[in-house]
Every structure is written in structure tokens, then in C-alpha cells.
Amino acid sequence: MSDQEERISETTRLGLEIVKEAEEDRLMTLSVGPQHPGSGHFRFTVKVDGDYIVDCDPDPGYVHRGEEKMCEYRNFIQNIPHLERPVIHDSSNITYSYSLAVEELVKIDVPRRAQFIRAIASELNRQIYTLYWLAIYGIFLGHSTMFMWPTGDRELIIDLMEALTGARVTHAYNIPGGVRNDIPYGFKDRCLRQVTNFEKRLKEYEDIFYNNPLLRQRTEGVAILTKEDAIKLGVTGSVLRASGIPYDIRKAEPYDIYDEIDFNVQYLKTCDSFARAYVPLLDMRESCHIIRQLLDKMPESGEVRAKLQPNPKGPPGEAYRRVESGRGALGYYIVSDGTPKPYRVKISVGSFRNLLALPHLLVGSKLGDMPSVYWSLNYWPVEADR
Amino acid sequence: MSKSDDRSLGNIKSKPSPTVASNKDLPSISPKQGETGSIASPPKPSSDNTSVQLKSEKADLPQFEKGIIDSLVSKYGDSVKIIYVRPLRIKIEVPSKDIVEIARHIRDESGFDHAESVSATDYPKTGDIEVIYHLGSYTRDDLSSHILSLSTRTDRNNARLPSLIGIFKSVEYHERESFEMVGVYFDNHPRNDRFLLPEDWADIPPLRKEFRIKGR
After folding, report:
1. Cα B151 → chain centroid
2. Mean pLDDT to the nearest integer, B91-99
3. Which domains does chain B show, CATH number per domain?
4. Which end of chain B has the smaller Cβ count within 10 Å, N or C?
5. Is CATH 1.10.645.10 the classification given to domain A63-385?
6. CA-based nearest distance B59→chain A, Å
């Protein structure tokens, strides 16, 4: 007679009731966010069995603003300022693909100089976003230096963008047909100086944060997203590139002048939480390299903005254009019915696509790994909600 | 640390992928029906004339793009309707009953392995809703810049389509969003329920054309 059978017969002899521990009694449901300081405007519930997460249910939508509906009420130009609201830190990129799609619909040719300025603005903006993300990632893992440094360095690039566009974060700089205004006097030198300084800082980031044994121990080998799963889940951006797939829209489908720029797609093959946190740093370094080339090749003078009709409209049709943003591919699907207002705008954002990886990665990992896994996904709640 | 050197050596550690807990509650909500045309709203002109048949221009079609869909057209014949073939962009329209089978063919034979976006568009004038899957490819280098738009239409008063979640796992949240925003019920989708909207949302799906923003 086995041990268990013995106990059952003993219980029956004593006339006791056998109570089986139900699964629900073992599990505890925890709600993370939306008030949690690190979760952003986003809530997800996790069920834990002891230390391990057995279920995860994301619940986005706390900052849903109906951007897609709002687009149907405004014309192509009026849409720009509100479309950058989902990611104000990356506002040049989120309006970039919109501009590309509108240009395809309305059939506008962008002047060559404008294409360079656009690319510079979007590269700088991607760095601003990534620094902000890095700061939160750092403080969330308890590394307060990594909160202070990127926040401070981000301010320098914001100053640069302010000189370029006139606004600190919400630039509304990319418009269909080019950019809003030309670069200011002396911008080129200032930008070069900034990029050189920034490259030095990236080295210091690596020394103090990415080579920190504590960070390494917490993130290496944690929450593996295999190449096959990454493809199946359709993730994008740094999450995809950390899973060993060298896919970048700038390389795969070069827009504007990116086909003239020489750069490498940064990717890692370890597929873990550390790789997902490290790829953005590699991207920033490559971005500095791209900005140098852009400044070098930019025509000295020329138009920065194509002439547009007061209320631009094109023939009925549809366009799907995408750019590489700080969080991966950012696509706009725009249907036009021939009027100046879009008939339907669908924004396909990287955050929303990467959200699918969150339950996939969290289920089976420890609760203590939750912060590092969540922020390694490069998830921006406001953008995902739109 | 010692591991830092083999960062780029490509040792993909495999992990027994945990089952994503999704099948727990099957859909119990009935599909959101479009309100019957009681709300007076000026019907917008349908962009149905976007679907210009390019049959006469077939000689000018980009050859590579044409090659991608040739096998589809030869296999499924008339059920695959080519809407347009442009450089890097292809759009086909298929009947909803065949979409799962055709999507499986696209995944297995044509090499498109994930969905970037699923967009549902309401066309009150023609009385239907168009759902477009923008499919891309990570595995094939020659397809990495291409987007195959797989579209299908359904009646807007009984918007119901088979889900492609069994073919492309990546459509899961996008289809769920289409359900709540446009009111297309996806058969076989594990969760046709609220996602981005508030839980107590008690109006028609907001991206239907008869839904008007207050004051505009």
C-alpha cells in the first residue's frame, strides 16, 4: 500500500472528510498597474503559484483616445498634431510614416534636402525615446544612476530638437511634403558635437549598467523568446532583433534616403531579457553613425517642403507605409475616398504587437523577473492604446 | 562577465514554450450587431472604386510581385480576386469561406509568416465591412520588404468571419481590437471581448461610421 493510500484509509477509518486542495486555492491573483509606478498606464493581472507566474492577462486601454476615429474628422494636415500624442517622445517617427502614406495617396514628391532633415529628426527622436525608456528600465531594476544619466543626456538632445523644431517634445515636424521649417544656422556643428559627446556617454552606460554583474544575473537567460516564437508572435523592433532576426524597416524597405546610408542592423542571438535590453543601446550607437552620414551627405541648400494645395486630397485609394520607430515597425494604413479627410486610418504600432509576447514570456517565469521582462519588451502603453 | 563574449555567436537557447493560457473562456457574447439604420448620418461615399481591376495592365505589373501570387491564382482560380499589384504591395480579396484555407497556403507556400496589422473598415454604402490582414515575412529575405494585404468582406449587419488565429498567432490582439472597434465577430477566436474600450462601454462599436463623436 502506498503512502497516499495509507493516509486515505486512515482518514476513512477516523471518519474524517477528505478535502482536496483545489487549484484555485493555490493560485493568487495579483493586479499590476495601472497605479503601479513602473507599469505605465497599463494593467495586467498575473496569477502566481508560489514564486511562479502561471497566467497573465494584459488589460490595456487606460489611455485609449480613439486616435483612429479622430483622424476621420480632420483633414490630412490637421491630423498631424494629434497623431503624435501616443508617443510624444518619439513624435517625429510616428508622424513620419503618416506623412509617407499621405504622400503616396496625394502624390507629393518630397525635396531631397527635406528627406535628409526628416531622417536626422527621426534618428534624434529615436534616441530621445530610447533614453527615456532606458531611464525607466534602469530605475525599475533599482539602478538609480541609470535613471539620472539618460534623463540628463536626453535633455541635451531635446535642446537640439528644440533648436530644430521649436518644441521640446511634441514637434509636429514631419508633414506631408517635407518638414515644417529649415534647419537653423549652426545646427550641423552643434549636432555633430552632440553626437560625439553622446557616443562617449554610451560607452559609460555600458560600463556602469550593462556590465553590472547584478543586472547580468537578473536578466541573462531569463524569459527566452526563441526565434520561432518571435516570428509566430509577429513581434517587432528590438524584441525581434534580440531574438536573432536582423530585421529593420530602414534596411528591409528603405524609405526616403535610407538606401544611401551605410549601416548595419544590430541584433543578438541570445533571445533573453538582457539581449532585449541591450539591442536598444546598440541601436543608439548605430544611430549616431547614421546621423554623421546624414549630416555629411545633406545638400547645402534647397527646398525643405513641397508646395501643397490648401486642402490636399488625392484620388480614392489606400496606402500602407511603415518606418522603424523606437519600438519597431510603425505602419499606417490609410484609406482615402477622394475627400481631404481620410476615410479610415489604422495605426499599427510596435507596442501593440509586442504586447502579445508579454503573456508568452511571463507564464512560466518567476514573479521577481516580472519587472525586467515587462520593460525589456520596449512597451509603451500610450502608443499601444492609441 | 564570462557570457558577454558569446553574445553574438548565435546559441539560441530553446525553451519549452509555455502554453499561452488563452482557451480558458470561449466566446459567450453575441456578435455586436450594427444598429439598424436609425441614426441619420450622411453616408460617406464608399471607396469601393479603389478596387480597380488591373487586368488590362497586366503586362506592366511588377514581375516579382506577380510571381508571388501566381501560385495562389492558379490554385484557387476565381476565388482570389487581385485588387492591385504595386511594387512591394499586393492586395487580394478572397471570399470569407475560403480565407482560412488560402491563408494557410500563403503561410506555407508563399512565405508570409506573420500579420503586421488587421484593419476592419466599415462601408455603409455597400453594406459591408472589409477586413484586411497585412501580412509580412521575417523568414524570407526577398519578401522582407513586401506586404501582402489579404482582404475579405462580410455583411455589416451580421459581421462574422472565421478567425485566422490558427494560421497566424500574431493576429490575436488585432482581431480582438477589430471585434470591439468595428464589431466583427471572429469565429474560433478564444476571446471576442473588451480590450481597449472601458468595460462598461454600452454603445455601438466606435469605428462604425454611424458612431459620431459628440459635437462634431
Report:
1. 7
2. 87
3. 56-157 (3.30.460.80)
4. C
5. yes
6. 21
